[in-house]
Write a structure and sequence with these properties.
The chain has about 240 residues and is of the alpha/beta class. It contains five helices and ten strands, in the order βββαβααβαβββββα. The protein has a six-stranded mixed β-sheet, sandwiched between helices. Strands 2-3 form a two-stranded antiparallel sheet. It has a two-stranded antiparallel ribbon with strand order 7-8. The longest helix has 16 residues, at about 30-45. The radius of gyration is 19 Å and the shape is globular.
Length: about 240
C-alpha cells in the first residue's frame, strides 16, 4: 500500500473574508468539510492527515472534530506572500522526520474550495497512479472565457489584443481551456525534490470536475456557497 499524507493548510489571517477557515458555512466550520473529505479518502486508500496552521483558534476547532495537531506552521510561512508549495513542503518534511517514513503521495485539500467529493478524489488518484511520469494532478473546471477568443490584454500602446494569438471565429472552435479551481492537488513525492516553484510542471495532469466548484476569495463568494449548501442547490452530492 502507498504511503499517503493528506495536508490541510489553514492560515489564521485572511483579508478578504476574516477568519474564513473556521467561519460557519451551512452550519459547520469551513475547515470541517475538508476534514471529512480527508477522512473519507484515507478510509479508502489509507494514509494520515496533518494540519498546517499558525492559529490556536483553528487548532481548537480542528480538535473539536477530532483532528489534533502536533505541528505549528512557522511565522515565516504564515504570511499572504508565501506560496502554498513552500507551506506543504515544510509540513511534509516535518511529518517524514517525526513519523520516520517517506510518503509516496501528498494530497492537499484546499480549505477554501470544499465543493468536491470522494468520487473526484478517487478518480484523480487513479489518474496519477496510472501515469508514472506525472508529477502531480490538480482539479479544474471548464472555463467560461477563452484567451484565444474573448479574453484581452492591453499592449504597450494602450490598445487591446487577444491574450493568445489565433484565428478562431467561435469559442467552440478555439482550443479547450480550463479554470484552476484550487480544490485539491495530488503530488508524487518527487515533485518536492525537483524544487518546483509552481504547481504546473512539464508533467502535470488535470482532473476536470463536471460540477460546480469555486474557491472563496470575497465575502460574496461565501454568501453564494452558503446559499447553495443551505438550500441543497448543488448540482452534485457533496
Amino acid at each position: 500500500m502507498q504511503n499517503i499524507l493528506v495536508t490541510l493548510c489553514a492560515r489564521g489571517g485572511s483579508k478578504g473574508i476574516p477568519g474564513k477557515n473556521i467561519k460557519i458555512l451551512a452550519g459547520k466550520p469551513l475547515i470541517v468539510y475538508s476534514i471529512n473529505h480527508a477522512r473519507e479518502f484515507i478510509s479508502k486508500f489509507g494514509g494520515e492527515i496533518i494540519l498546517s496552521t499558525d492559529s490556536k483558534q483553528i487548532i481548537e476547532v480542528a480538535s473539536a472534530y477530532a483532528l489534533t495537531s502536533d505541528y505549528t506552521r512557522p511565522t515565516s510561512l504564515a504570511t499572504d506572500l508565501v506560496g502554498k508549495i513552500e507551506v506543504i513542503q515544510d509540513v511534509l518534511r516535518y511529518a517524514e522526520r517525526t513519523r520516520q517514513k517517506k510518503y509516496d503521495y501528498i494530497l492537499d485539500l484546499d480549505i477554501t474550495s470544499p465543493l468536491r467529493n470522494i468520487n473526484d478524489l478517487t478518480e484523480a488518484f487513479k489518474l496519477i497512479t496510472s501515469n508514472h511520469d506525472a508529477t502531480n494532478i490538480f482539479s479544474v473546471n471548464s472555463a467560461n472565457r477563452n484567451p484565444y477568443f474573448n479574453m484581452v490584454e492591453l499592449k504597450n500602446d494602450g490598445y487591446a489584443k487577444l491574450v493568445k494569438e489565433g484565428n478562431f471565429l467561435t469559442r467552440q472552435s478555439a482550443p479547450k481551456v480550463y479554470d484552476m479551481n484550487a480544490s485539491f492537488y495530488i503530488y508524487r513525492r518527487k515533485f518536492f525534490d525537483q524544487d518546483n516553484k509552481s504547481v504546473i510542471t512539464n508533467a502535470s495532469l488535470i482532473y476536470v470536475m463536471k460540477h460546480t466548484c469555486f474557491d472563496l476569495d470575497e465575502p460574496q463568494d461565501f454568501e453564494i456557497m452558503n446559499y447553495l449548501l443551505s438550500n441543497d442547490r448543488l448540482d452534485f452530492a457533496l
